[in-house]
Amino acid sequence: MDILMVDTCFLIDYQREARAQRHGAVAAFLKVHAQARLQISAIAWGEFLTGFSDEAHPFIAFARDRLDLLELTADVAGVYRRQFRWLKASGNLIGANDLWIGCHALARGVPIVSRNHCDFERIPELVVQTY
Questions:
Q1: CATH homologous superfamily of domain 3-129?
Q2: Model pTM score
Q3: Running DSSP on this structure, what letter comes out for residue 86?
Q4: CB contact set of 61 (below 8 Å; sequence gap of 6+)
């Protein structure tokens, strides 16, 4: 079984597709990867939650029931430290949240699923899947 870590934009796009009652790029991706185990970093989950004024919104429960929510660990922090230093020195630093999310996926050895490939592809060795 494949394990994939999804980025915030994946959930946002999925919610938009559901609200519009249409099958778009996220639905197509999920169909192809129907057997995949989906994970989300606590950082991406927090970003996602900021889009809701009501914490009881049904899409929050829907998404939470389908994702493994992963906490940050010391290993992730170590990967973040190395990648931050390298990206800063090379002049390619990305936003802090995206760097944390990408490093979380890298530390776990799983691809990140995002339409924001431009930033995530700056992280060496991180596998990025778009939809």
A1: 5'-nuclease (3.40.50.1010)
A2: 0.94
A3: H
A4: none
